[in-house]
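= Protein in question =
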Amino acid sequence: MSDFSVPPGPGLVHRPTLTPPSLQDNSADGDRLCSALRRDLGVEQIHVSLALRRRLPALLRDAAYAVRCVIFQEKSCAVLVHAAAADAHEGLYGLAVDLGTTRVVLRLVDLENRTVLAEDGFDNPQVEIGPDVLARIHHTDQPGGLARLQRLIVDGLNRNAAALARACGVDAQDIHLVTVAGNTAMSHLLAGLPSGWIIREPYIPAANRFGLMPAAELGLALAPLAQVLIFPNVGSYFGGDLIAGILHSGLHRREETAILVDVGTNAEVVVGNREWLMACAGAAGPALEGGMSRMGTTAGPGVIDRVRIDPRTRHIDIHTIEDLPPRGICGSGVIDLAAQLFLAGMIDIRGKLRPDICGPRLFLRDGLAHLIIVPGEASAGGQPLCISQADLDSLIRSKAAMYTILETITATVGLALDSLPAFWVAGTFGQFIDPVSAITIGMLPDLPLSRFATLGNTSLGGATLALVCRSAPAEIDQIRDAVTYLELNVNQEFMNRFSAAKFIPHTDPDRFPSVPIP
């Protein structure tokens, strides 16, 4: 399920030492608890909601002044999210959310034991409005559009959080804290914030920091006083999912410089160390606007994730996730396929299919060349699985944009790509991608394979850290303030480099010494 490991340091559950009131010590109940928490946590202020203050007198007496507190601690202030008797049987749980445009992933966390109990995901129900951010934001311009989008995601979260809790024998009413990491648009749509200006020049979000907010205010059916942390964003194209990714990776604590790449519908890149962080997002590059998803489907059972082609016979050998009959091909599988087609001489350096080499597998449909990868009799749906020239053209643009983003951001900070000591790839894409194939088509730089590492779902990892590590909120603010965002829309060097990268592996093959040219 998860390879998440808990870092050292205190968690979010704290047991303060309280003495019962007396004639000699007649502090108010709320003051008594807040004083102890300020002393123990070393903060100047403790915020307690009015609703929780109403419960404290009875709670403290029933518990004989021995309590457990769920604390959300920022720099000089802490929020008392929940208090319970120290010996109460009720669990204290949190929910980490990776709020993706296409897929939403949840983790249920025991706040006291600092353990991940379970993880599950569901398709973002906002897809019924539109598959991408652009369509959904345009929908908010319609009367009731924003409210509908917000209700769709909230209903999805409520339904799936309750199911995940039930599977663990937990009551959703015992979930007291939710941490959400999503891109800027998804965060706005969850919060019900106007998002139209995110996609209109000069691309201004309604908020970069959301603060802690009551879950009930969003419509989440959790503990009555549950709170929600939505990770902050840096701007329209650098969201909380990237902040969470940096937190999870520890990039902001490294002495050596490293680069973190998360490729989904868009490509987002951060390079830096504990002294500085530079970031940019591929949504600013027009070649990535459709992402990899138009070439196939998202990774899942029966989806092709690996391809090998015999360069002599041109026999195509595929592998599917869970070894099921093939029903589609994911982005990492397309990269594998393109690399193998190139090495077998079936496409040229422009990514164009070669009829003389492809043979009878190649056919025209509506005047467009298609190559059969899996014949109909071998596919799950009984129809041939093909890749078209348009798919390959889109891949060439996407890979060129990806490489150009990497080249531009490293050049901006005075680094050469081949000097990077560590190259981290995040997300589902990173889980399945073969770095050799990505290097072969010129998508990733030609580095020693030992420098590449896959980090999994760093967005979810960062959201989980915020539930188990008391210092995480302060780190989140530190990361957000440290990031310098590089705007690619107005970067002329990006466009110049992009044109040079639209060949396999590149117009300058010396950059890719490990790639054999057929």
Remarks:
- Residues 283-295 have pLDDT under 50 and may be disordered.
- Residues 293-394 form one domain.
